[in-house]
Amino acid sequence: MCGISGYFGSIRDGKTLLERMTAAIAHRGPDEQGVFTTPQAGLGHVRLSIVGLGDGQQPMSDASGELTIAFNGEIFNYVELRDELKARGRRFRTSSDTEVILHLYDEMGEECVSLLNGDFAFAIWDARRRRLVLARDRMGVRPLFYTTQGGTLYFASEVKALLAVPGVTAEIDPIALDQIFTLWAPIAPRTPFRNILELEPAHLMIADERGVATRAYWTLEFPEQGQTPAYTNEGCAADELRALLSDATRIRMRADVPVGAYLSGGLDSSIVSALATGMAPQGLRTFSVTFDSVEHDESAFQLEMAAALGTEHSAVACRAGDIASVFPEVIRFTERPIIRTAPAPLFQLSGLVREAGLKVVLTGEGADEVFAGYDIFKEARVRRFCGRQPGSRIRPHLFRKLYPYLPGLKQQSPEYLAAFFGAGDESLDDQLFSHRPRFKGTAATKLFFSAGLRAELKDYDATEELIDRLPRDFGRWHPLHQGQYLESRFLLPGYILSSQGDRMAMAHGIEGRFPFLDHRLVEFAAKLPPEMKLKGLTEKHILREATKDLLPRAIGKRTKQPYRAPDSHSFGGPGAFDYVREALSKEAVASGGLFNAKAVAKLHEKCSTRPALGFRDNAAFVGVLSTQLWLQTFTGAGRKAAAA
């Protein structure tokens, strides 16, 4: 795991520029730094040494000196690939996974990505063809951003490095902001920075004298609804799932340093920790976050699982005010506004791992997308049932079963719940049916947009753009698979793996690894019949069946409790922070020009005096505050006004 930067084009003093760019992302690779320049291109690298500790320095060139790579991430099947290459007569000078990519590229060109099982973003300068090749992993675990300035292409693992390029400035993209306040994240390749883009997951970019071209090399696909399923025997499917997941975990334990695991107390991280424990000869260290709030805390399950596995367990307590104390740093690393505070405790957690002396952790992310674990999938199933059976007597009971961890909803009337979930209100043919209530609820936060921003956005609709980005066969898939695609293709890389994942872990130089996102497992799960994943209202049924011998019964049978953190409540009360008052002051908000200063002032007062708020106000408060902090951090807007 590392950070990369570079350029394609003729510039003055490329070495000095690359040193500035790499310095901006030094937190991603605190162990070593290096640069490589030619008259046509340059590569920069900061290293977090995990594999090939003594000989994996980058940028790395092949024996001919004609191929040079800067690589961020890990290739988990590098051992098998290296053995195959050696059998074909290839000679290796290092023990790193980086050199494997160089040899494969030498043989196959950019098509080598099809053989890589890993999380990666890399750049290869091909001197023979005088071209630059950029690639990003299938699921979007590792980030890669780019922009052009004066006819030169610049790229980096984080936008901070691009802002070190003369002439590249930070300016908010209003369309991206609207997407965040509707969909939770921008639709790639768009980013919050105007004219700065990200390479989409599973995409290649090739830059040469003819120009710059991008293309997909892999797509997430599901079978056509009604098609005979590839798997009909549940027992056989569970056995294959167990074998795939075990192997995905095994190869992600490969490292020349100790590997730990996050343990939330839920099903997914518990499964990964259980598998990893049997693969860690020296024992496994596990790490978790605890909360003062009973609604968010899962420490009892964390301790039960750690005791069952016999791991050396550590936890970081996220107390009142802790989220607020780190939130400005969180936004500096997310590099984008967010509408939930959930990344903040994970920022603290990665700091705990770093303090413990580890560099690598396994996590359970991806299981909910791959095996239909989120409540939104169950909710969509109930809403579809209600749309087809509006007079059903069991409908109220189904609504109450959806969110057992939210006692407030269980107390509501059937009529309220039906209205809350939009049951029967939307067309069953709506391509965004599964996510429409979430998008509508989130979009209500745009009530706080300024008149100027509204005028600039005009009649823009983020959901319409999302529909335009859906694959041609989307309408032929089962409704559950449609919902899974929306989560996996957009929210997962755009928010979960970015704001909550890579950016929070790498802020402290920690590499997260995700067994559930092994592309072999993803492709296998996509072929499973929907009822094996969501059986009635039991989420991740096949995963539970495949791993039921690994976990204590209380954890194996747990209903999904999504990871959440206290939102607006974290910033109020007697310990309120000065930076919050400054960022949300009428002067600062007016200076930023994005929000209605009077409406924000009322929202701030409301959040400061009421202990509990609804989703809209919570999301709006966090969204406005994070946007104001984004402006201060990257453009300077608001800071001067607040200080004046």
From TrEMBL:
Sites where the protein binds ATP: V289
Residues the record lists as binding L-glutamine: D97
GO biological process assignments: asparagine biosynthetic process
Site (Important for beta-aspartyl-AMP intermediate formation): E365
Pathway(s) per entry: Amino-acid biosynthesis; L-asparagine biosynthesis; L-asparagine from L-aspartate (L-Gln route): step 1/1
GO terms for MF: asparagine synthase (glutamine-hydrolyzing) activity; ATP binding
Recorded superkingdom: Bacteria
Active site: C2 (for gatase activity)
EC number(s) from the headed UniProt entry: 6.3.5.4
SUPFAM superfamilies in the record: Adenine nucleotide alpha hydrolases-like, N-terminal nucleophile aminohydrolases (Ntn hydrolases)
Signal sequence extent: none
Protein keywords: Amino-acid biosynthesis, Asparagine biosynthesis, ATP-binding, Glutamine amidotransferase, Nucleotide-binding
GO cellular component: cytosol
InterPro entries registered for this protein in UniProt: Asn_synth_AEB (IPR006426), Asn_synthase (IPR001962), ASN_synthetase/amidase (IPR051786), AsnB_N (IPR033738), GATase_2_dom (IPR017932), Ntn_hydrolases_N (IPR029055), Rossmann-like_a/b/a_fold (IPR014729)
Chain ranges of the Glutamine amidotransferase type-2 domain: 2-210
Pfam family of the protein (one): Asn_synthase
Name under which the protein is recorded: asparagine synthase (glutamine-hydrolyzing)
